[in-house]
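Here is the promised in-class demo. Please do not try to memorize the tokens; focus on the logic of going from shape to residues.
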């Protein structure tokens, strides 16, 4: 069954859902996006995702032509149209159609696109056995260039790192920042556990303020871990007891090897396994109802 896609207030079947080749989202990567999940008929952390979308837009001086309430309703409507209860929602706001020059003032109206579809999950094997990752040569953008806090359509920095991971035959890449400290992965945040402390890079170190990251930090505190944002080197990764990644699509996913070094015992650690489970339970229980 073909899905229906929201573009600027109208719905189009997938095959007919199109934007102009003059859209600066396409010509220049000028725009922002968001990725949200619905579980069990509810949108998880809806306000957090909508707030981040508007913050990303504001940071690039892009005014989204609708209120947050209207935006939420458009998301719910897209889910209802497609009769979805469990979904991945991709929201894209581009600068809109302009001319061939890069000046955003030539773009009269942003394009608002909402795509809700069934999610393709990572293989269950990853959650049971953990990921083997590498750090890659491509460094995370500096905050003074394209700030990693902005979920912009300019993901080439992350894609270059992903290509390096692909070439090395691993599912994700760990990116370091310009100073060589750990920043994040191409589409996920990274955590380590040392003793009873959970550590993750701060956004000033080049990490997106992941929404899953925030939930993982809350859950970790609840199970007795001390939670801290800290500058991390590759050494800290290598000597960690446990490690995991977080992301809306990936949820909480264990890491068992980094640059050929086994993390802890080389199997998903006990805190990590607890967090994988607690996160899923929370996501299944909470959220904004789609059908009420
Ligand atoms: N870092 C990057 C670069 C990402 O693209 C994402 C996914 N949006 C994340 C981290 C994880 O963020 P979240 O938990 O909000 O999905």
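The designed amino acids, position by position:
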């Amino acid at each position: 069954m073909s899905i229906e896609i929201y573009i600027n207030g109208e719905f189009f079947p997938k095959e007919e859902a199109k934007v102009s080749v003059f859209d600066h989202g396409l010509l220049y990567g000028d725009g922002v996006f968001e990725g949200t999940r619905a579980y069990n008929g509810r949108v998880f952390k809806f306000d957090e995702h909508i707030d981040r979308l508007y913050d990303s837009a504001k940071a690039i001086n892009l005014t989204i032509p609708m209120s947050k309430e209207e935006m939420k309703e458009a998301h719910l409507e897209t889910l209802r149209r497609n009769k979805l209860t469990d979904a991945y929602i991709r929201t894209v706001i581009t600068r809109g159609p302009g001319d061939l020059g890069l000046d955003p003032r030539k773009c009269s109206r942003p394009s608002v696109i909402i795509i809700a579809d069934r999610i393709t999950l990572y293989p269950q094997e990853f959650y049971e056995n953990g990921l083997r990752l590498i750090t890659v040569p491509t460094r995370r953008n500096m905050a003074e260039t394209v700030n990693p806090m902005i979920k912009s359509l300019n993901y080439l920095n992350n894609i270059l790192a992903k290509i390096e991971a692909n070439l090395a035959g691993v599912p994700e890449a760990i990116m370091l920042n310009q100073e060589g400290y750990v920043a994040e992965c191409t589409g996920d945040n990274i955590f380590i556990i040392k003793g009873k402390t959970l550590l993750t890079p701060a956004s000033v170190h080049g990490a997106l303020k992941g929404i899953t990251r925030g939930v993982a930090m809350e859950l970790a505190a609840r199970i007795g871990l001390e939670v801290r944002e800290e500058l991390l080197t590759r050494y800290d990764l290598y000597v960690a007891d446990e490690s995991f990644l977080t992301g809306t699509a990936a949820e909480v996913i264990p890491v068992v090897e980094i640059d050929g070094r086994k993390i802890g015992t080389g199997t998903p650690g006990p805190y990590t396994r607890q967090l994988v489970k607690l996160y899923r339970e929370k996501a299944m229980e909470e959220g904004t109802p789609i059908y009420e």
